[in-house]
Design goal:
The protein is an alpha/beta fold and 452 residues long. 42% of the residues lie in helices and 17% in strands. It has 2 domains: 167 residues, Anaerobic Ribonucleotide-triphosphate Reductase Large Chain, CATH 3.20.70.20; 228 residues, Anaerobic Ribonucleotide-triphosphate Reductase Large Chain.
């Protein structure tokens, strides 16, 4: 039976508290497009993407209009190109990135992810070709997102890949320096990357997935913030229960949208990603939730504990609302996309080192952090290695999306625009780690990886 109080409550969440479905992402398998001729491969992937996703935007907009639920983004993820294109005879994969971009433009999505490689145990020639193609690929496209998975709990961390990616990030920053190195905002490096993540820049369509699938990412930091505000003076147990209940309601909205989108597009429903994803809008901030829990600023002592409780409560509430939970599912802590995080950096409460500690208990990692463009490649590789080690040891997904902004230094502000927001340039620990990074090889998997 319909509970009209809950109907009005959901309506208020949408109108007053920034509740939205952050993305409907269609995953598309490209393995059946394999061809030695790169031009033939490009034609096949363009045709497959534009055939399956031709109605994705229209369906998303119609559901949003009919149900009154904002659906912010419509996106596509594809099989990691380093796998799908491995038989192509070509000198680089830039033409493939341009084909993905053209397909995204044709169907009207804002991003297409999957210009990706999975290299946790080693790099094939195709993997290395893709990684070395990233700077030009991201500089010459608007919609393409790229990712590389360099580690896992079962296989350790590929430090040869980490070293190379430190260099590639700087090359990408240089290639897009006229736009404040924004190409780096469309690239992320992972450990334990999930096959079904609907969020960019890290989405790709894993090889364990169906041929085509719909994954949905919900959001609602504003809704959680309003609920937490009503718990002032209450115990942490009461606070946790309150967050769980509101996470349940947010997830039910996402479940409804996901199933309806899958039905109308005639493809399987995959997963709901429970992640709380902030935006630069006032009142749509993870940092504000943590402050309402009792912190003066994010970064104050107690921040990691508060984030751990928030993340766990969201997962518990969301998992009760859907049997198809997947992706990243937790709290995102990007700097540029969260006004509260930006404020914490400005007053000196939040450093990269504190953000790294927070990633032990959140669902992603060091996200949308702007650093000086003069930062060395080995220093960037060292930051990545630290974050990958956290994911490997703790059996969780961690990631780094870091932006060395060419020509900018600590204290400068860089404007990315839209959902990417703006960011103060954060200081980096510049004590040298190059001898460690230049050793190469692999950090072995931890002892608790042996579970067979």
């Amino acid at each position: 039976m319909i509970n009209f109080f809950e109907v009005y409550e959901t309506k208020d969440m949408i109108e007053s508290e920034n509740l939205d479905v952050r993305t409907i992402t269609m995953g598309i398998n490209l393995m059946d497009c394999a061809d030695e001729d790169v031009n033939a491969f490009n034609e096949k992937i363009y045709n497959k993407i534009t055939t399956y996703a031709k109605d994705l935007v229209k369906v998303g907009e119609s559901i949003s209009k009919e149900y009154g639920v904002p659906i912010v983004n419509k996106r596509i993820s594809v099989t990691p190109i380093a796998l799908a294109a491995s038989s192509c005879k070509t000198k680089d994969y830039v033409s493939i990135a341009k084909t993905l971009d053209r397909a995204a433009e044709t169907v009207g999505v804002n991003f297409i992810g999957g210009f990706s490689a999975l290299v946790s145990k080693g790099m094939t020639p195709s993997d290395e070709m893709l990684i070395r193609s990233i700077p030009e690929a991201l500089a010459s496209t608007k919609h393409v997102c790229s990712s590389v998975n360099v580690g896992s709990t079962r296989s350790g961390v590929n430090m040869d890949a980490v070293k190379l990616i430190g260099e590639i990030i700087l090359e990408t920053a240089e290639a897009t320096k006229e736009a404040d190195s924004i190409g780096c905002a469309r690239f992320v490096v992972f450990t334990n990357a999930p096959d079904d993540n609907p969020f960019m820049a890290g989405a790709f369509h894993g090889v364990t997935e169906a041929d085509v699938v719909i994954n949905v990412g919900v959001s609602g930091p504003g809704v959680v913030l309003r609920a937490v505000e009503k718990c002032r003076g209450e115990s942490l147990e009461v606070l946790s229960e309150t967050i769980k209940k509101v996470a349940f309601k947010i997830t039910r909205v996402g479940q409804m949208v996901a199933k309806e989108a899958a039905r109308r597009l005639n493809v399987p429903f995959g997963i709901i990603d429970l992640s709380l994803a902030p935006t630069p809008a006032i009142g749509d901030s993870i940092a504000d939730i943590l402050c309402e829990m009792g912190l003066e600023y994010v970064g104050a002592p107690g921040t990691t504990a508060a984030l751990a409780m928030l993340n766990d409560s969201v997962k518990k509430g969301g998992a009760m609302a859907s049997s198809n939970v997947g992706g990243l599912s937790g709290a995102f802590i990007p700097v540029s996309e969260d006004q509260g995080m930006i404020n914490a950096v400005k007053v000196g409460a939040l450093s990269i080192e504190k953000l790294e500690a927070m990633t032990c208990v959140c669902s992603v990692g060091l996200d949308m952090i702007a650093i000086p463009g003069s930062t060395k490649a080995t220093t960037i590789a060292g930051i990545i290695a630290d974050e990958m080690a956290i994911g490997m040891i703790n059996q969780k997904t961690t990631a780094v999306r870091i932006i060395p902004v060419i020509g900018k230094d600590v204290g400068d502000i860089v404007e990315f625009g839209g959902l990417l927001g703006y960011a103060p340039i954060m200081p980096v620990n510049n004590f040298d780690c190059s001898k460690f990074i230049n050793r190469g090889g692999k950090i072995p998997a931890p002892i608790h990886s042996f579970k067979n």
